[in-house]
Write a structure and sequence with these properties.
mainly alpha
């Protein structure tokens, strides 16, 4: 017996012994949390390299069988990962639906403030962005010009958003990317998907700030589940254009502490959690300091640092400007 082959097989058995237990544990857990797809792929790549070496050296023996056995078990673990990932997504949507239903029931049975929906924030820390996106009217009336680049970021909102001079702010805050405003005062969750597909999808945005809901008070009262469905369909349409698109959902203003608007914002927050999007609460606008933010951006720019801000930072700049500069906008009109 060749001891070299024997010890190599023993090494493979020792390495592979834990994988069946890991597969069983992961399958019963029904969640992909704690599993690492890159690690699994790395192990599979290692086994494939070992198998290739054996074949190239014409070493067709029991050691090769152990390689294939280990590879099959690790490949099974990968299948379990994707199955659990799918279950995680279904569970997140169930949480959003249950949370929204709870908020709806509370709104209809008591005059008290709707309690904060307790959902786990699974939003992963946002990566940096690249480009930003100018003006709804220009886009509707003409085809995208050569200046409008794909893989940018869109501001898609209503009345308040349409008045925000995004290009001006991009210059003032030393953004090293473009930003375009595609907002429309008539936008609501019912027509948002169709509007996105007709007016924005050709730009295949890399990121998008969504600020809709101000025109949906009646829908949230009569059919809150449809509100969720329309919103999620919009998000799915966005990701069909760019699977890696970063999405931020912005709360709507509620100057009169209206119960329906509170409910809308509760639903938006729940959807953000379920769809792994960023939730931006405009109430924080009164705490933001645009001048200090500008000073920091200018300093970074002067030092040659090309800082590309995540969506939450962009929202801070845009809506703090709206809070401090747009006529008719006050703390009450941004406290949603």
């Amino acid at each position: 017996m060749n001891l070299t082959h024997l010890f190599e097989a023993l090494m493979l058995v020792c390495f592979g012994f834990s994988w069946p237990l890991n597969v069983s544990k992961a399958y019963k857990a029904r969640t992909a949390k704690g599993m690492s797809l890159p690690f699994i792929i790395l192990i599979i790549t290692g086994y494939l390299a070992g198998i290739t070496a054996k074949i190239m050296n014409a070493q067709f023996n029991y050691v090769l069988v152990v390689y294939f056995l280990n590879l099959a078990i690790v490949a099974t673990n990968m299948l379990v990962y994707f199955r659990n990932k799918s279950l995680d997504k279904k569970a997140a949507r169930a949480i959003a639906t249950a949370s929204a239903t709870k908020a709806t029931a509370t709104n209809t049975t008591t005059a008290k403030t709707i309690p904060v929906i307790e959902i786990k924030n699974d939003v992963e820390k946002e990566e940096t962005m690249y480009n930003y996106t100018n003006s709804l009217d220009e886009y509707i009336n003409t085809k995208p010009s050569a200046v409008e680049k794909k893989n940018g970021v869109i501001l898609m909102g209503g009345t308040l958003d349409k008045a925000i001079p995004v290009s001006q702010l991009a210059g003032e805050y030393s953004f090293n990317f473009e930003i375009y405003n595609k907002s429309d005062a008539s936008l609501n969750v019912t027509n948002a998907k169709n509007y996105f597909e007709k007016a924005i999808s050709t730009l295949a945005p890399e990121g998008i700030l969504i600020h809709i809901g101000e025109n949906d008070a009646n829908l949230i009262k009569t059919n809150p589940s449809n509100f969720d469905t329309y919103y999620i369909e919009l998000i799915e349409s966005i990701r069909s254009c760019n699977k890696a698109c970063r999405i931020a959902l912005v709360s709507i203003d509620n100057p009169n502490a209206d119960k329906s608007i509170e409910l809308i914002n509760a639903h938006i927050k729940a959807i953000a959690g379920a769809e792994k999007a960023t939730f931006v609460n405009l109430e924080n606008a009164k705490l933001w300091h645009p001048e200090s933010t500008k000073a920091a951006c200018n300093f970074a720019h002067s030092m040659g640092l090309k800082v590309r801000k995540p969506l939450n930072d962009v929202a801070e700049i845009l809506y703090s400007y709206a809070y401090h500069n747009i006529e008719g906008t006050s703390a009450e009109h941004l406290a949603s």
